[in-house]
Amino acid sequence: MTGRQIEARSGRRLAVTLGLWTLPALIVGMTSTLWFSATTINELADSAYDRSLAGAIRAIDANISTESGGVGVEQPYQLFKFFELTAQGAVYFNVTTDDGFVQIGDVLLPPPPELSSGEINFSDDTYLGRTIRVGSLKRPLSPATPEGTQIIIQVAETKGSRTAFQNELISRAILRDIMVILALVLLLAAGAYAAVKPLNRLREAIDTRDPDDLTPVEVASLPLEVRPLVEAVNRLMQRNVEQADQQRRFLDDASHQLRTPMAIMRTQLDVALHQQNLDDVRKTLLSSRSVLDRSVRTTNQLLALARARTSQGYDAYPQELISLEETIADTVRMLWSRIRSQRMDCVFEPAEVRVVVRANEGLLQEALVNILDNAVAYAPPSSLISIRLRVEGDWAFTEIIDEGPGMNDEEIAHAGSRFRRGSSKRSVDGSGLGLAIALTVARAFGGTMTVCNRPDRSGLVVTISLPVISALPG
Amino acid sequence: MNKRIQATIASVAMFTFPAIGKAEPSKPECIAPAQPGGGFDITCKLAQASLQNSGALKAPLRVSYMPGGIGAVAYNAIVGQRRAEAGTIIAFSAGSLLNIAQGKFGAYTEKDVRWVANIGTDYGAVVVQQDSVHKSLTELMAAIKADPTSVIIGAGGTIGSQDWMKAAMTARAAGIDYKTMRFVAFEGGGDCATALQGGHVHVCMNDVGDSQAAIDGGAPLKLLAIFSEQRLPGKLAEVPTAAEQGFDIKWPIARGFYVGPDVSDADYKWWADAFAMTMKSPDYAQLLQERNLFTLPMTAEETTAFVHSQVAAYKTLAADFGLTTK
Predict the structure, then answer these.
(1) By CB distance 3.0 to 4.6 Å, which of A165, A367, A423, B40 could disulfide with B91?
(2) How far apart are alpha carbons A403 and A399 in whole angstroms?
(3) By CA distance, what is B151's nearest residue in A?
(4) B139 and B150, same domain (yes or no)
(5) Which residues 347-366 on chain A approach chain B with CB closer than 8 angstroms?
(6) Has residue A172 been placed in a domain?
(7) For B219-243, how does the pLDDT look when each residue is reduced to its tens digit (9 = 90+)?
(8) Which among A80, A107, A130, A155 is the top mutation candidate for probing chain B, defined by the most B β-carbons within 10 Å of its own β-carbon?
């Protein structure tokens, strides 16, 4: 657990979040749909209305006679009468030849755009102050001479009824879209309410729990999306339960570890008080002192363990870049007299490169001291302790190898647990905290600790692995 | 035109009047360069009747129609392709000359044809429906001044044509910007009169001749004003002149004929002499009066000189109204 606080951000109602995400999409979607509808409606209406314009043009065209050699245009007013009835507006026409000889009809109509022969072009324009739609057709006066004189026929109508028709359709489209938006908003609101309802039930269920009820929350009835969250909370509670368990056990063990030597000392003190012979008293007190030493050491180890645990979360023991081989060498030097007191020997085999790790030197030394202490305590006198430092990839492995009895499988499985002392029958004054401290320290620096028996002969291999920051050729 | 009847008449004529005057062109034809029913039609019909009546022309004169641009299409056809048709005379009017003055007859000028004769004169007239709300030219102009788009002015010919010119001159005299007039162009006075009866235009800037012919034929129209010096005689005496109503504008319309540029001098002279003889005949005045036309006898050189001077005068007038002239 990092314990780092999650960046505080003010909470928002789900419905608001939902609205903020969906409303712009809805607005953009509806606007583009509307724009598209309007364009389509305009195009459709134009093409429908333009058809009747085109019909009028074709009718005038059919009534242009050139048999006499001149250009005769039959008046289209009868035709327009019906056309005006359907178009509900004014209709204008203009027939011209491109040589300018013939100009018949509303000669002041705006001139047509560039036309290609035979094609009817439609455009919007203004005539007599009103908006008009003009259809224009250009064709050769005589089919026999397509490059000769061209005749241009224009028919225009006022756009009033067309625009009204288009506006009617567009306003209907707008109304429809608004209704769709309203329906969507209602459905979304109902959906959001239904989706949030199980969460409210969950909150009520948790609120009504007993304070010490840490059993997992039922997830089966929850929405799939919420389950991982509740499961994470369940796991957090589970860890709390386990940690509370561990702490209770630790307290039990620690108090037991401290009470036993105190009881022994109390007994010894009683014995000493009853002894007449000063030498006997002295002997008893000496034995009491060793018991007291053990208690002091246990207490120190408990403190070290507490410090190592603490360092995982806080900066009280700052980590810095340190040279791993120097730290190991210093530790061996520190323990040298104790190793020699057992007439044991210690060999340190550094890596070929200079290994730098990020750690707190004091705590790392504490871990190494505990492992070496164990080796000194469990291995037979005059045996050899080897320390090997090697680098593989991004990891530095520090192996402490002794020639002791090693551990059985069960002990290996529980190595690192507090107060699990090696079951070796030899009387050793260990508290079982050494490997627990080493493991805790290694984890605090992003590494770990493993324990195994030597493959070649009797003996234990304790390996501390730490991530390498840099490994430079020494 | 019913061609079979024409053919029958022609064959009967051939038998009845064997060709005496050897200079008389064969298959005589008068082209009215417009739709039937307008001033050109009347001009040709007058020639048809009077030449036959006077005996100047033995063969019947066929009247054909070649509409387009107040004579522009026909003028181009004659100067372009039918240059030497001795038997073909083409009607013209002052309106043709005005358009020639503006270059609206294409690349050709008044010097490109041979002008045969003037056979009479007509006058511009303002025509409305019989029950029109506009009771006088003054009222009509007031209505246009109040709202230029409320009155649709019909005319034979487009912007710059003589009908437009009459309207523009009157509008200017009434203090109206003639460019704001609502204007619809027709092929000729006949078409405009038809549209006027249908109510598609409110007023036609026509001629006395074709308008009165339509009224005589029963069309429910009436003349609001005539662009003449004085009131015209006979039944037209009731119609006031434009000047009487406060618009001092005169618009006489000379009517006559031309032939193609490559028509021989002999044939040209034959036509000129035929018209001169016809116009001197005693029945001619009667024929003119029937068609509400007035005498203006000219032929050959006199007509040519008249045409040239008129074109020059029209050029000045067109420039005055901002129309392009070439």
Answers:
(1) B40
(2) 13
(3) A128
(4) yes
(5) none
(6) no
(7) 999 999 999 999 998 889 999 999 9
(8) A107
Q: Determine which of B30, B40, B73, B184 to mutate to test the interface with A (most A C-beta atoms within 10 Å).
A: B73
CB atoms within 10 A of CB A455: 7
Partner B contacted by A98 (CB < 8 A): no
Size of interface A-B (CB pairs under 8 A): 82
CB contact under 8 A, A100 and B77: no
Is some CB atom of chain B closer than 8 A to the CB atom of A442?
no
The alpha carbon of residue A24 is apart from the nearest alpha carbon of chain B, in Å, by: 50
Could you tell me if residue B326 is inside a domain?
no
The closest CB to that of A70, out of B65, B104, B159, belongs to: B65
Structure tokens at A362: 């004091």
Q: Give the span between the Cα atoms of B228 and B224, in whole angstroms.
A: 13
Range of the domain at B177: 123-245
Does A101 contact B105 at a Cβ distance shorter than 8 Å?
yes
* Chunked mean pLDDT (size 10), chain A, 474 residues: 49 78 85 90 89 90 82 81 76 88 87 87 89 92 84 90 88 89 88 84 86 81 84 87 75 73 84 88 86 80 71 61 92 88 91 90 86 88 93 93 87 71 47 77 87 89 93 75
| CB-CB contact of A444 with A459 (8 Å) | no
E strand or H helix at A406, and its extent? none
Task: Determine, for residues B198 and A97 on separate chains, whether the beta-carbon distance falls below 8 Å.
Answer: no
Residues B263 and B241 in one domain: no
B178 touches chain A (CB under 8 A): no
The three-class DSSP label of residue A423 is coil
Q: Among A167, A182, A206, give the residue marking a domain's end.
A: A167
3-state secondary structure of A102: coil
Mean of pLDDT values over B130-144: 93
- Domain-ending residue, one of B225, B245, B265: B245
Whether pLDDT at B181 is above 70: yes
- Chain A residues touching B76 at Cβ < 8 A: 101
Among B66, B185, B200, the residue with its CB nearest the CB of A103 is B185
The reported pLDDT for the residue numbered A291 is: 80
Disruptive mutation site among B41, B88, B158 for chain A (greatest number of A CBs within 10 Å): B158
Q: B149 touching A, CB under 8 A?
A: yes
CATH number at residue A88: 3.30.450
Q: Are strands A72-73 and A64-65 parallel, antiparallel or unpaired?
A: antiparallel
Is B95 in contact with B161 (CB distance < 8 Å)? Answer: yes
Q: Which domain holds residue A341?
A: 318-473
Supply the ipTM of this predicted assembly: 0.81
Distance from CA of A116 to the nearest CA of B (A): 23
